[in-house]
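[Structure tokenization] protein backbone as discrete codes

[Encoding] learned vocabulary of local backbone shapes

[Begin record] amino acids and matching fold tokens:

___
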Amino acid sequence: MCNCCNAKKTDIMESENFKKCVEFHGHICPGLSIGYKAALEGMQKLNEERSPDEEIVAIVETDACSADAVQVLTGCTFGKGNFIYKDHGKMALTLFSRNSGKGVRVSMRPNMMSPNEEHSSLIQKIRAEEATDQEKARFQELHLQRSRDILETPAQELFNVKSVQMEIPPKAKIEPSEPCFVCGEPTMRTKLELVDDKKICRGCL
């Protein structure tokens, strides 16, 4: 591989945005790299910047590593109410701009995350806590290389990207709390369930 390609790889991993993703997530891995590429592609398609408030809404369909990069790059978080999780088990991301009313869905193409035979074997050994120190080191080497390969793969090879029409998600609600009849803990009023004329939180139900 030529020196310019190596330099390009180094630039991505050394970029401020990617470092922020790694800091938030805790380590570099292929899943984080996929989330980074998907979020970047989606934001570019919408021509949007990171959301300081609720200007962007992100809908992820997996709770795996990629979701952390989406939060960092888009500014969408659970706390702001503009980060929505759907348990579909897919590496798919939908972004919606309140500014333009446009939406885009970025979904992974088949087999793009499949590790090679050696990498896959080491993953199984590590999960079973049967890997030697040498095997763990080799796994980290392959894991890092796979992460780099993903970062350098053109987005059009990794993802299917399409514009989507969707109902504008409501903004985060701020509502008064009332005590649960059973535990007494303050609970958002709309999250209480009425049972025999008693307001009970979902945890106690």
Q: What stands out?
A: Residues 1-10 have pLDDT under 50 and may be disordered. The chain is about 40% helix and 20% strand. The first helix runs from residue 3 to 14. The beta strands are 56-60, 83-85, 92-97, 103-108, 159-164, 177-179, 186-188, 193-195, 198-200.
